[in-house]
């Protein structure tokens, strides 16, 4: 059973660069260890974080024009684990989250997709995802039904 | 990350020595695969047993390596750990590649 009583919400900050992602995920995973989640749940959390952070670094932050950071806030409640990721990059197009279908893999090898899996993976792995632009910041909330 | 190659029964085995194939090293992996497989023949067996984690960029890099090798050479995978296996199953890429539990199982089947 998850050890909710001992859990307190925490924040992990990272520089907005690809090379900082691995360490930020490890730090987050280490702090979540107290919840006693299953290996598969921990994998899900790490995959969702990796994809969300990569998207921000690749698509939102290049428009800032200066080095900038990302913040991950983790909170565990009766609904599961909420990961709120905040950045000061460009807003989502139309202020809405992408919802692409899985890339088509029933194609010749030469046409096999090498990308476009990120948002499909996030949406497949989370219970809920929401987005809000406020005070010049992007707030992405990922809810994971873990430790149930 | 380091790629280490060996040959058994005309199959080129490439072992990935490193815990992750992610966005930070995807390009390095792609270039490394191209260099290490260049000018050789036969099936390439990618040993992922030491890789704990890949993200969609890492998956894309493995797909790119497969496309680079085709049509003359086939890329098959062995030793997928749980997180790697999860990404392949989620994207159904496990149906595109030949996937074997271990290098030994792959060699037995491919021989």
Keywords:
heterodimer, A: 148 residues, alpha+beta, Heat Shock Protein 90, five-stranded antiparallel β-sheet, 5 strands, globular, B: 111 residues, alpha/beta, Transcription Regulator spoIIAA, five-stranded mixed β-sheet, two-stranded parallel ribbon, 7 strands, 39% helix, 26% strand
Strand and helix layout:
The complex is a heterodimer of chains A (148) and B (111).
Chain A lengths: L9 E6 L2 H15 L6 H22 L8 E9 L2 E8 L30 H8 L2 E7 L2 E8 L4
Antiparallel strand pairs in A: 1-2, 2-3, 3-5, 4-5
Helix pairs in contact in A: 1-2, 2-3
Chain B lengths: L1 E7 L2 E7 L2 E2 L4 H12 L6 E4 L5 E2 L1 H14 L5 E4 L3 H9 L7 E3 L2 H8 L1
Parallel strand pairs in B: 2-4, 3-5, 4-6, 6-7
Antiparallel strand pairs in B: 1-2
Helix pairs in contact in B: 1-2
Protein name (chain B): Anti-sigma factor antagonist
GO molecular function (chain B): anti-sigma factor antagonist activity
Organism (chain B): Sulfitobacter undariae
What does this structure look like?
The complex is a heterodimer of chains A (148) and B (111). With 148 residues, chain A is α+β, with helices and mostly antiparallel strands. Chain A contains three helices and five strands, in the order βααββαββ. Chain A has one domain: 2-Layer Sandwich (Heat Shock Protein 90). Chain A has helices spanning 18-32, 39-60, 118-125, and strands spanning 10-15, 69-77, 80-87, 128-134, 137-144. Chain A has a five-stranded antiparallel sheet, covered by helices on one side. In chain A, helix 1 (18-32) packs antiparallel against helix 2 (39-60). Chain A is globular and about 50 Å long. The mean pLDDT of chain A is 95. Chain B is of the alpha/beta class. Chain B has one domain (2-110): 2-Layer Sandwich (Transcription Regulator spoIIAA), CATH 3.30.750. The chains are: A alpha+beta (148), B alpha/beta (111). Chain A: Residues 23-143 form the Histidine kinase/HSP90-like ATPase domain. Chain A: GO terms for molecular function: protein serine/threonine kinase activity.
């Amino acid at each position: 059973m998850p050890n909710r009583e001992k859990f307190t919400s925490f924040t992990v900050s990272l520089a907005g660069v690809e090379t900082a992602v691995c360490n930020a995920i490890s730090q987050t995973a280490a702090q979540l260890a107290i919840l006693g989640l299953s290996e598969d749940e921990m994998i899900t959390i790490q995959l969702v974080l990796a994809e969300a952070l990569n998207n921000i670094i690749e698509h939102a932050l290049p428009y800032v024009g200066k080095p900038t950071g990302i913040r991950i806030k983790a909170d565990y409640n009766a609904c599961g684990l909420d990961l709120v990721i905040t950045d000061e990059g460009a807003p989502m197009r139309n202020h809405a989250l992408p919802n692409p279908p899985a890339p088509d893999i029933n194609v010749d090898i030469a046409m096999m997709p090498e990308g476009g899996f990120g948002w499909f993976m996030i949406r497949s792995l989370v219970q809920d995802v929401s987005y809000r632009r406020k005070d010049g910041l992007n707030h992405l909330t990922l809810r994971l039904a873990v430790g149930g | 990350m380091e790629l280490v190659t060996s040959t058994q029964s005309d199959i080129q085995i490439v072992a990935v020595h490193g815990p992750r194939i992610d966005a930070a090293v995807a390009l390095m992996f792609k270039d490394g695969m191209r260099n290490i497989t260049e000018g050789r023949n036969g099936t390439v067996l990618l040993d992922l047993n030491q890789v704990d984690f890949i993200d969609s960029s890492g998956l894309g890099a493995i797909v790119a390596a497969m496309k680079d090798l085709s049509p003359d050479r086939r890329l098959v995978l062995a030793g997928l750990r749980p997180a790697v296996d999860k990404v392949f199953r989620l994207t159904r890429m496990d149906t595109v590649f030949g996937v074997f539990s271990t290098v030994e199982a792959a060699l037995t089947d491919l021989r």
